[in-house]
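Entry for (R)-mevalonate complex. Fields follow.
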Amino acid sequence: MVEAEKQKKFREMDMEERFDYLRRNSGLTEHGEQVLRDWKNNAPKETENHIGYMVLPIGLVKIRVNQKIYGVPMATEEPSVVAAASHGAKMAEKTGGFKTQVIGTGTITTGQIQIIDIPSDRFEAAIQKVIDYIPQLVEVGNIASPRLIAAGGGIVSIKPKSIYVKMRQSVPGADHRQLIIDFDVECKDAMGANAVSKMAEAMAKPIESLTGGKAVGRILSNLSLGRLVICEAEFDKEAIGLRKEINGSVIEIPANEMIRNIIALNDWAAIDQFRTTTHNKGIMNGITAVALALGQDTRAIESAAHSYAAYGGRSYQPLSHFEILGNGNLYGCLSVPIPVGLVSGVIDSNPTAKALIEITGCNDARELASLHAAVGLAQNISALRMLAGEGISKGHMPLHHLRTSSS
Ligand code: MEV
């Protein structure tokens, strides 16, 4: 999306003006526009035992990410979420917006194969056999997902590991260990859940033959460490300071006090899991709404985020961190896995999601993941500023009541 015209803000435009603006300033095609206007006749494919549709409003947040201005669609039942994300995006605007770094290729999905009942006297040899046959296993796995290979993806590593388990059923001669084979797959612009699970299923039989065990679980892992996005922003202190008139009385809190309060909130979230959970929910308010609008698997993203927040045996942690900078501005950093893709059956069967992806103008899955993370951090700073200042019932709820009573 190119820089907005100065005359009218997007929120001040009527629907015609908004589409006119999007036609000229985003990747929205004529077809995409028709789909959005005629959404009732462009429903996604029916589901099992279909009885209707859950309709959600879609809002657009204007946000600068890596020096480019985007219009990012958000679908959510909560009206204040889009307003909060827009406010958070604005707070970073003066200092250059949001910067993201995608770790590695950022498009790796991990698969897992579980092997049980390996005879005790063959366990070590079984691990060695898997290692010796890695090239052949890669070939078998890759053949199972030809579209991924055609797109330049494929298995990049296979790592066996053993886990100790209680033997609930005694299998004569079987080991107390299970052999778990983790494998990483470069998925390019696909999220890769189906492709990776198919690969796991294809490799399971040859691994049974190599190890003498029995394959049970064959599925991707949603702990998406190969899709980590680090998003940073500097929030201008002038934008953090609060001066607001609510019901005739003025609430005024200077920037330095607001920043101190926000850091105190962050410190609280680092220690008390009751607060950590709500802090991270605020981040996911943004990320999930973007994911839902863009036809992504919201549950995969949420499970990855919350699992990452407790990764490596540490206590459940806030996904973001805030500090005061030497110039008095507030620095924020969010680290979160974002397993998303531009290529999927769900997107193919959902014309609205396709049109909304056009609006973002995203060209690859890394860019798409960056937008999710940036909106997550924008949402988070906005929520923390509101808590540090006027509080949720004055800051967040009034918008909710306003919207619900006028609709
Ligand atoms: C409400 O949907 C989200 C917040 O509770 C997040 C937070 O407390 O940080 C406001």
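NOTE: Confidence is low (pLDDT under 50) at residues 400-407.
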